[in-house]
Write a structure and sequence with these properties.
- The structure holds two protein chains of two kinds.
- Chain A is an all-alpha fold.
- Chain A is built from three helices and no strands.
- Chain A has a single domain (2-73), classed as F1F0 ATP synthase subunit C (F1FO ATP Synthase, Up-down Bundle).
- Chain A is 88% helix and 0% strand.
- The mean pLDDT of chain A is 90.
- By secondary structure, chain B is mostly helical.
- Chain B has three domains: 1-84 and 310-339, Topoisomerase I, Chain A, domain 4; 100-192, Up-down Bundle (V-type ATP synthase subunit C fold); 197-298, V-type ATP synthase subunit C fold (Up-down Bundle).
- Chain B is built from 20 helices and no strands.
- Chain B has helices spanning 3-20, 28-33, 37-46, 50-56, 62-84, 87-96, 98-114, 118-123, 133-140, 145-151, 158-161, 168-190, 193-216, 221-227, 237-244, 248-254, 261-264, 274-295, 301-325, 330-336.
- Chain B is globular and about 55 Å long.
- The two termini of chain B are 32 Å apart.
- The chains are: A mainly alpha, B mainly alpha.
- At the A-B interface, helix 1 of A face helix 1 of B.
């Protein structure tokens, strides 16, 4: 039904959106700290980058949930 | 402390931690004992003081070069902390580092009082506070103490300086009291309880050192109370009255009630040198700052810990170099180091 498909799309949007906001909040402090450490010593670039992208996994979880919603439940 | 405050501190704390990792390691100080002054100069040149040593190398030699390089580096490091911090951290660091303004004013006044030359006074200047080196070097050129005091008329320190009548100790005490009361007000206005706790402990340690010195000098109770700084953590004003009226041996025994006793409990009964106690209290302050900075990693405390550690590094190198210059035995130099 069109209404169900609409709800699924909204759900997928919320999953990606909230996960993105969460990841952003996590990365905010880590990114600031990584830039601070890098400003003193360029050798921290690799470690800083790695640490900064760790919260990105939360966004990927959100994306996975959205894809499940769209392609598993949306296809029914 | 809110999430946004944590984020604000993340940048400066990470930066300060990286700066702290570049400080001279503790195990290097005993090795300095076996080096001569040119070797020490070479080592500090390779460990973060390169720019300062190169810059001042044309003007100074030997221990004077090290002394000036250390002072310049300390001032520039503190200024950098003010420049790279923002909001609350910037305000608190600026207020805390005003202690260097107090130091510089005292140095100029003492220099003028004892008739020291301009170069001799400038040797001890560390422009880590709000007074710029250029302005200070202009003030140093003024011949009289009254003239020097008048030149500070537009600064917040003038309140403590006005009414000078030949008693330098009174002015120095008034400067300390003004600094700490302003700092307590500034910290209270931000509501930063961690800084307040750190500051109160620092005041206690300063008061303890003063109590030891004044007791040793045999000063009167009322005189002692007048010179102590109110606002400490454990040593309140009623403690001042009690401790100031005790004899030296009773005073040492009375200190057992305070947590600072652990730092000085191993001193021998006969107090031959106060330096031993002062060194232990300095070490306590350093360890305390380092410990609480790990408890609260995203706060002002790691920055304060760095400020203290950097100061102690500079002091230690200076003690070693000056000690070696005057051929002091190694064990005496070691006894003066805070490690």
């Amino acid at each position: 039904m069109v209404v169900d498909a609409g709800f699924i799309a909204i759900g997928a949007g919320i999953a990606v959106g909230l996960a993105g906001i969460g990841a952003g909040m996590g990365e905010q402090a880590i990114g600031a700290a990584a830039v601070g450490a890098m400003a003193e010593d360029e050798k921290f670039f690799g470690k800083g980058l790695l640490m900064t992208v760790i919260p990105e996994s939360i966004a990927i979880f959100g994306l996975v949930v959205a894809l499940i919603l769209l392609f598993v439940f949306g296809a029914e | 402390m809110g999430v946004s405050n944590n984020i604000k501190y993340a940048y400066i704390v990470a930066r300060v931690r990286a700066m702290k990792s570049k400080l001279i390691p503790r195990e290097m100080y005993p090795k300095f004992m076996n080096m001569d002054i040119p070797e020490i100069t070479r080592y500090i040149e390779e460990s973060g003081y390169k720019k300062d040593v190169d810059e001042l190398g044309k003007k100074y030699r030997g221990t004077d070069l090290i002394e000036h390089a250390l002072n310049q580096n300390l001032a520039l490091t503190y200024r950098k902390l003010i420049e790279v911090s923002q909001d609350e951290a910037n305000y608190l660091i600026t207020e805390y580092l005003r202690s260097w303004d107090i130091w510089n004013i005292k140095t100029i006044l003492r220099g003028k009082f004892s008739g020291a030359s301009e170069d001799e006074i400038l040797e001890d200047i560390v422009s880590g506070g709000q007074l710029r080196y250029r302005d200070i070097s202009e003030i140093v050129k003024i011949g009289t103490i009254e003239g020097v005091i008048a030149s500070f008329a537009k600064t917040p320190y003038y309140k403590a300086l006005e009414g000078y009548s030949g008693d330098l100790a009174r002015i120095e005490n008034a400067l300390d009291l003004l600094y700490y009361s302003n700092l307590i007000n500034a910290v209270t206005s931000t509501g930063n309880k961690l800084f307040l706790k750190f500051l109160k402990t620092e005041i206690d340690l300063k008061n303890l050192k003063m109590l030891f010195r004044m007791k040793r000098a045999g000063m009167e109770r009322d005189e002692i109370i007048k010179l102590l700084i109110p606002g400490g953590m454990e040593l309140k004003e009623n403690d001042f009255v009690r401790l100031a009226s005790l004899s030296m041996s009773d005073f040492v025994r009375a200190l057992e009630e305070y947590s600072y006793w652990n730092a000085i409990s191993d001193i021998s009964g006969e107090l031959s040198s106060l330096r031993d106690i002062e060194m232990r209290l300095d070490k306590y302050g350093l360890t305390y700052a380092s410990r609480i900075s790990y408890y609260y990693p995203l706060s002002i405390l790691p920055i304060l810990d760095y400020i203290l550690s950097k100061k102690i590094e500079v002091d230690n190198v200076r003690i070693i170099v000056r000690g070696k210059e005057t051929s002091l035995p190694d064990d005496i130099i070691k006894a003066h180091l805070v490690m």
